[in-house]
Amino acid sequence: MNWTTRLRQLAVCAAIALLSVGCTTLPAAQPDSPYSYKSPSADGIGKVYLGREIAQVMGHQGAYWLERPSRELEERPDMAIDALDLQPTDAIADIGAGTGYMSFRLARQVPQGNVIAVDVQPEMIALLEAARDEQQMTNVETVLGAEDDPHLSPETLDLVLMVDAYHEFAYPREMAAALAAALKPGGRLVLAEYRAENPLIMIKRLHKMSQKQVKREMAAVGLRWLKTDERLPQQHLLFFEKPAG
Question: What is the chain's pLDDT, residue by residue, as a tens digit (245 residues)?
Fold first, then answer.
């Protein structure tokens, strides 16, 4: 079975899935924890970090959404790639890589470099690997990460990219710290997130982030804001740097 057939099957499963509602017991906040807890919002998990409720994760059943044809115009991945100013030898990690939609675009720009595609869902990794093999993308490797650890080697990356993913991380402090550790000194971390400042962007509230919130959360792990690029139709591109030395 090829990967496009599997995507179609997942689309059917998502369309007929029943909504199940259960009772959730909120965990007690620990005194030294950066997290607090509340009753979950409609699209949240009830876990709060620096004033932001963490969004629910899109499961692998929604993989077809990542490959929708309209995404080219809605998100302009070509413009996002241009904004990154990549070098042919760059070592890149695509965090929350999903089906590899951005991973493969990145890999074509770094023929002497490599892209590490990280996801926490084995089903997404399987889809990505099938697509990689079909496309013969030899400079893309996959890593099955954990919710609080991307399993990346320290100081090995020139760039970390997260596209519409960070707001779903169940452990954003731990993940951001681990990603900062994986960057070389002077390496960059870039987030693409739908603009929370614009109410006309029709994305669920918790799946958008403001510049102010992103800057606050990256500063918490020692990353320095470089710039915000607003060239994309609906998303910010926020650039951060790991200080040298």
Answer: 565 555 555 544 444 333 333 444 556 657 789 999 999 999 999 999 999 999 999 878 777 767 788 989 999 999 999 999 999 999 999 999 999 999 999 999 999 999 999 999 999 999 999 999 999 999 999 999 999 999 999 999 999 999 999 999 999 999 999 999 999 999 999 999 999 999 999 999 999 999 999 999 999 999 999 999 999 999 999 999 999 97
Q: Where residue 222 sits, what CATH number does that domain have?
A: 3.40.50.150
Tell me how many domains the chain contains.
2
Residue 223's domain comprises 75-241
> Are 128 and 179 members of one domain?
yes
> What are the E-state strand segments in the chain?
35-37, 44-49, 52-55, 91-95, 114-119, 140-144, 157-163, 183-195, 208-209, 224-229, 235-241
Q: Identify whether 64 is part of a domain.
A: no
What the block records as the tokens of 239 is: 């650039």
* DSSP at 71: H
**Is 60 within the bounds of a domain?**
no
Domain-embedded: residue 203:
yes
Say what the pTM is. 0.88
Please tell me whether residues 129 and 234 are part of one structural domain.
yes
Who contacts 176 (Cβ-Cβ below 8 Å, separation ≥6)?
166, 217, 218, 220, 221, 223
